[in-house]
Amino acid sequence: MKYEESDNGAGPGAWLMSFVLGGLIGAAAALLLAPKSGRQTREQIRDIAEDAKEKAEGYYDQARDKISMAMQKGAEVFQQKKDQVESTIEKGKDAYRKAKETIMES
Fold first, then answer.
1. What pLDDT is attached to residue 11?
2. Which residues neighbour 56 within 8 Å (Cβ) at sequence distance 6 or greater?
3. How many alpha carbons fall within 13 Å on the CB side of residue 101?
4. Are 56 and 46 in contact (CB under 8 A)?
5. What's the longest Cα–Cα distance across the chain?
6. What is d(CA 95, CA 102) in angstroms, rounded to the nearest whole number?
7. Torsions phi, psi of 16, nearest 5?
8. Alpha-carbon distance 70 to 67, whole Å?
9. Cα separations (Å) of 11 from 17, 46, 48?
10. CA distance 97 to 93
11. Angle subtended at Cα 63 by Cα 56 and Cα 54, rounded to the nearest 5 degrees
12. Angle at CA 15, nearest 5°, toward 10 and 18?
C-alpha cells in the first residue's frame, strides 16, 4: 500500500500524530474539568500519560520496523540496478571491442 502526501503536505504520519495528540488533549481536558478530588485527577492523568507513552513506544517500534524494511528493500533494488548497469556497460565494452576488431580486420 503506497501512501502519498496530500495537497497540504501532510502525510499519514502527520495525520496519525494529530489524531493521537487531539485524543490526549481531549482526555486531559475531560479529566481536568470532571468533578473529582485532586488525588484522583492526578492518578488518572498519570495513567493516561503512561498509556500514551506505551502507545508512542508502539508507534515508534512500528515505524522503526517499516523504515528498516524499506531500507533493506531499497538496498536490494539498488544492488539489482547496479548489477544491471554493470552488465550493460560490459556488453557495451564487448560490442566496442568487436566493432574495433572488425574495423581493424578490414
1. 66
2. 20
3. 6
4. no
5. 102
6. 10
7. -65, -45
8. 5
9. 10, 31, 26
10. 6
11. 20
12. 115
Cα 72 to Cα 51: distance, rounded to the nearest angstrom:
32
Cell of residue 39, nine digits: 488525588
* Nearest-angstrom CA–CA distance, 103 and 106: 5
Residue with cell string 517499516: 66
Average pLDDT of the chain?
A: 83
CB 13 within 8 A of CB 6: no
Q: At 9, is the pLDDT very low, low, confident or very high (cuts 50, 70, 90)?
A: low
pLDDT tens, position by position, 41-50? 788 888 888 9
pTM of the model: 0.48
pLDDT, tens digit (0-9, with 9 covering 90-100), for 84-95: 999 999 999 999
